[in-house]
TrEMBL record:
Location(s) in or outside the cell: Cell membrane
Any GO molecular function: cell-cell adhesion mediator activity
Residues spanning the signal sequence: 1-20
Naturally occurring in which organism (per UniProt): Cyprinodon variegatus
Subunit structure: Interacts with PTPRG.
A GO CC annotation given for this chain: axon
Coiled coil: none
SMART domains linked to this entry: IG, IGc2
Protein name: Contactin-3-like
Organism superkingdom: Eukaryota
Gene3D superfamilies named among the record's database cross-references: Immunoglobulins
Length: 244
């Protein structure tokens, strides 16, 4: 039996609708995340993740600082699925904001922007720091002067020499934003040399500043002490310090 032509057209339309309904544009499974790479590890590879689902399966493109990466001409960068793998890392050429695009015949989507940065910590500039004088009972701020760096930093201060670190209490506070040491109501036992120690939490590198001398003023004059007098002033049982 031959089907009427109108029925054939209707069946064709229904088939096409059902067939097209099985296709859909890309949807994210995983978007790229920020990366911090230690400068000492630049011989290793960096991987920026990108994964989407869709029908037909998505294809991928990457951009760096808004410019499309031509993977066909780039020997250091390649795709693995949607992931961008960068070899022979270069801290000057590879740093920046990366973005992934997933696309198929139905549509395209852009990922969040992810930064690739290189973590490092330079040394302090070598120079003698001026002594800081303060009257007993007053407050004082000792400046760390953080060297050039990239990556999360932590700060501590050494009192006179290792392994005695200043312990924070109700008079002493170390800012983890600036590295500066704040001392309230200075006492004679606070007199001595202070050294700022900076640690990069990513590279694990550590550097220290030149010492800053804290000197006590008496009646408007600086009280000078030799080493023996300084030791007699410092009562280690009263200093709130810890050993690491």
């Amino acid at each position: 039996m031959t089907l009427p032509w109108k029925l054939l057209i209707l069946l064709s339309i229904i088939y096409n609708c059902l067939d097209s309904a099985s296709y859909h544009g890309p949807r994210w499974r995983m978007e790229p995340a920020d990366l911090f790479i230690p400068v000492d590890s630049i011989e290793e590879e960096a991987t920026l993740t990108c994964d989407a689902k869709g029908t037909p399966p998505p294809q991928y493109r990457w951009s760096l600082n808004g410019t499309l990466i031509n993977l066909g001409l780039d020997r250091r960068r390649r795709l693995s699925g949607g992931n961008l793998i960068i070899g022979n890392l270069n801290r000057y050429q590879d740093v920046g904001m990366y973005q992934c695009m997933a696309y198929n015949t139905v549509g395209a989507i852009l990922s969040r922007r992810a930064s690739l940065q290189f973590a490092y910590l330079d040394h302090f500039k070598v120079h003698t720091r001026s002594a800081v004088s303060v009257r007993e009972g007053q407050g004082v701020v000792l400046l760390c002067g953080t060297p050039t760096s990239s990556g999360d930093l932590t700060y501590a201060w050494v009192f006179n020499e290792y392994p005695y670190f200043v312990q924070q209490d109700n008079r002493r506070f170390v800012s983890q934003q600036t590295g500066n040491l704040y001392i309230a109501k200075v006492e004679p036992s606070d007199v001595g040399n202070y050294t700022c120690v900076v640690t990069n939490s990513i590279t694990k590198g550590k550097v220290q500043s030149s010492p800053t001398s804290l000197i006590l003023r008496t009646d408007g004059k600086i009280q000078h002490m030799n080493g023996q007098q300084l030791l007699s002033q410092v009562n280690h049982s009263q200093l709130k310090m810890f050993h690491i």
